[in-house]
Design goal:
Strands 1-9-8 form a 3-stranded antiparallel beta sheet. Strands 2-3-4 form a 3-stranded antiparallel beta sheet, with no helix packed on it. It has one domain: 3-layer Sandwich (Rieske Iron-sulfur Protein), CATH 2.102.10.10. Helix content is 4%, strand content 32%. By secondary structure, it is mainly beta. It has 1 helix and 9 strands, in the order βββββββββα.
């Protein structure tokens, strides 16, 4: 009697990671803009602790360029109206409400990699 259990397959398609820059190209507590062929730019952020995050470069409030904001901890302050946006999930801090779309990021061997399909998709 065969008691082998079939392996579960991941229903998600494999991620096509795209090398976008060196980690050092993103300043500590700063940002770098990644231009997309369609849709708004993406802002890559690097926290003081070295974490790398990516959000749509538009504040959910009035569309301010988050890449020009001040990075503190794992948040960025929008340069237009000082909304505090989480770098991990893009969520505005209460009492403000809204979300800047987050993008998948991977760091390996000193390089920043992003999901190519996310970068190609229009907003």
């Amino acid at each position: 009697m065969d008691t082998a259990v079939p392996l579960a397959t991941d229903p998600r398609p494999a991620v096509d990671w795209l090398d976008v820059c060196a980690v050092d190209d993103v300043p500590l507590q700063g940002a770098r803009v990644i231009r997309r062929p369609r849709g708004a730019d993406v802002a890559l952020f690097r926290s003081a602790a070295g974490g790398v995050f990516a959000l749509l470069d538009r504040c959910p409030h009035k569309g301010g360029p988050l890449s020009q904001g001040i990075v503190y901890g794992e948040r960025v302050a929008c340069p237009l109206h000082n909304w505090s946006i989480g770098l991990v999930d893009g969520q505005a801090a209460a009492p403000d409400v809204g979300c800047a779309r987050p993008f998948a990021v991977r760091v390996a061997d000193g390089r920043v990699w992003m999901d190519a399909a996310e970068l190609r998709a229009a907003d």
